[in-house]
Amino acid sequence: MIEHAESDMQPIVRMQQVVKTYRQGKVDVHAVNNVSLAIKHGDFAVLCGPSGSGKTSILNLIGGLDVPNSGRIWVDGVDLSTLDSSALSQVRKNRIGFVFQAYNLIPVMTAYENAEFVLNLQGVSEAACRERVMATLAAVGLEGLEHRRPDEMSGGQQQRVAIARAIVTNPAIVLADEPTANVDSHTAELLLDLMQQLNRDQGITFLFSTHDQHVMDRAKRTIRLHDGKIESDEVSG
After folding, report:
1. Vertex 5, ends 74 and 36: CA angle to 5°?
2. HEC states along the chain?
3. CB-based burial label for 136 (10 Å; 0-12, 13-18, 19+)
4. Would you say 161 and 105 are in contact if contact means Cβ atoms under 8 Å apart?
5. Which residues does 116 contact at the CB level (< 8 Å), separation at least 6?
6. What is the pLDDT along the chain (237 residues), one digit of tens a residue?
7. CB-neighbour burial class of residue 187 (10 A; exposed 0-12, middle 13-18, buried 19+)
8. Strands 173-177 and 78-79: what pairing?
9. Does residue 12 contact residue 37 with C-beta atoms inside 8 Å?
10. What is the largest CA-CA distance in the chain?
């Protein structure tokens, strides 16, 4: 029997009474309004709701790309409120994978180099980098395309490179902001198949923000937001 470490029994992400307010003109807008939330190991969860409901704001807070006005956030057991900008950067580099709707690939780098980039920042040896990158590119269906640059790839292939870059470091969680927004419906289904397989076979935890009903239909857990608050939180059978 496999014994799980105590940390494995804790949520990957925990938000406690988090508030994020932006100033628009003379009015304070609560993008995130007293949200408490836990994301567990192995979740395949979506944040959904109308524009302005707080989906991307929550992802940015969990990812350490933004800081709350009040409340606390833990990622993989680390309290983000105790960290300076340098330490937050280390958490992003070592514990969080990001997938963006605009791919955010480095255009002058090949698929291999884009996937390898964060491993280089982590100081992983060249041999270990090659083994992990090649295995990851194969896992996302890009074997044989490692030398292509983004402008030589389709939108779906570029998003697969982005997914490879997000998972190659073995992060605690992958945050995916509208990952199917810029691809056609067939490609979106293939990407969702891929991410579900990674979730199922490798136990990778995913948290999406989305307007896409196809993504919502695939989710194990659907967290609906409205005006910065959690309206409902449902687990599918």
Report:
1. 25
2. CCCCCHHHHCCCEEEEEEEEEEEECCEEEEEEEEEEEEECCCCEEEEECCCCCCHHHHHHHHCCCCCCCEEEEEECCEEHHHCCHHHHHHHHHHHEEEEECCCCCCCCCCHHHHHHHHHHHHCCCHHHHHHHHHHHHHHCCCCCCCCCCHHHCCHHHHHHHHHHHHHCCCCCEEEEECCCCCCCHHHHHHHHHHHHHHHHHHCCCEEEEECCHHHHHHCCEEEEEECCEEEEEEECC
3. buried
4. yes
5. 129, 133, 168
6. 233 344 456 899 999 999 999 888 888 888 999 999 999 999 999 999 988 899 999 999 999 999 999 999 999 999 999 999 999 999 999 999 999 888 889 999 999 999 999 999 899 999 999 999 999 999 888 999 999 999 999 999 999 999 999 999 989 999 999 888 888 888 888 889 988 998 998 899 999 999 888 899 999 999 999 999 999 999 986
7. middle
8. unpaired
9. no
10. 59
